[in-house]
Amino acid sequence: MSPGSVPADWRHRRVALRVAVDKASRFLDAEAPETHVVLTEELAEELDDLGCDYLDMGVVRGRDRRITRLIAEWAFDAEDMSGGPAFAGVRYVSRHADFECWALFDRTPVIELERRAITHGMTGLQRIARKFGLVVH
Question: Which residues contact 71 (CB under 8 A, 6 or more apart)?
Fold first, then answer.
């Protein structure tokens, strides 16, 4: 398969889901400057080990996955006042385009609203394929 090709098997092994989460669920907003301030302090030692002295939008959206994984790990481990999980996931904007993304932690309960096969002609799939120069089989 040539570079930039998405094999049909990729589609066949997955499904598209539309889900809902409890309205009370909290998400860490990785885009918020307030989040950057708190995480710069909370993760100071780990960030220093990675050669980063503070978080800002450029770092959060940067290529260093060690930092984004560090942020996600902190959010996953954070506890609320009762000792339960503080966050259901992380909200961020993709560095590839202005796509708003909501990453759910696997422990977050969801209500499945719709389940669909990922078909070759799916409008959203073809739009993304064109945007990134991919060929979907």
Answer: 28, 30, 39, 43, 55, 60, 90
Query: What gap in Å lies between CA 31 and CA 91, rounded to an integer?
Result: 7
- H or E segment to which residue 6 belongs: strand 5-6
Residue 132 belongs to what domain range?
A: 1-18+117-137
Q: Are residues 52 and 76 in the same domain?
A: yes
Q: Which residues pair with 92 in a beta bridge?
A: 101
- pTM, 2 dp: 0.85
Cα angle vertex 19, ends 18, 21, to 5°? Answer: 160
- Structurally, the chain folds into a number of domains equal to 2
Residue 78 backbone phi and psi in degrees, to 5: -65, 140
Token pair listed for 26: 């909290």
Q: Are residues 93 and 48 in the same domain?
A: yes
How would you write the pLDDT of the chain (137 residues) with one tens digit per residue?
789 999 999 999 999 999 999 999 999 999 999 999 999 999 999 999 999 999 999 999 999 999 999 999 999 999 999 999 999 999 999 988 778 999 999 999 999 999 999 999 999 999 999 999 999 99
What does the DSSP 8-state code read for residue 85?
B
